[in-house]
């Protein structure tokens, strides 16, 4: 009898056979990889050449610093408020919307910083940043 059981129908072990499921997932993964690389075709365009090309670089940021004595600096050069206004107006004529950062010493009079900010508002500069330090 032991020999008959060896050659008879085999009983299936309990559980789910996931081999077909893994096969299907691998096929789907291969199809996804192949189609994702080829789905965005590039369009070749021969661009015309311009005689006077304008560079598309960002304008340089102007830094205004006010030290603890109340002295105003534009890009590390000492200036008076009228000089600062004339230089910024000249820069605005060349580059209409350039960024400006204002760095004020912690012990400087608040009125001096307000004067500089008021000057920037009169010139109609919109990109203004106030520089602060990291807390200790």
TrEMBL record:
Keyword Protein transport among UniProt keywords: yes
Sequence intervals crossing the membrane: 21-40
Topology versus the membrane: Single-pass type II membrane protein
Gene Ontology biological process terms in this record: protein transport
A GO cellular component entry from the record: plasma membrane
UniProt-recorded Gene Ontology molecular function terms: transmembrane transporter activity
Alphabetical keyword list: Cell inner membrane, Cell membrane, Membrane, Protein transport, Transmembrane, Transmembrane helix, Transport
Chief localization: membrane
Pfam families: ExbD
Cell compartments where the protein resides: Cell inner membrane; Cell membrane
Subunit annotation: The accessory proteins ExbB and ExbD seem to form a complex with TonB.
Family (UniProt): Belongs to the ExbD/TolR family.
Role according to the record: Involved in the TonB-dependent energy-dependent transport of various receptor-bound substrates.
PANTHER family, per the entry: BIOPOLYMER TRANSPORT PROTEIN EXBD, EXBD MEMBRANE COMPONENT OF PMF-DRIVEN MACROMOLECULE IMPORT SYSTEM
Protein name: Outer membrane transport energization protein ExbD
Source species of the chain: Azoarcus indigens
Native organism taxonomy: Bacteria, Pseudomonadati, Pseudomonadota, Betaproteobacteria, Rhodocyclales
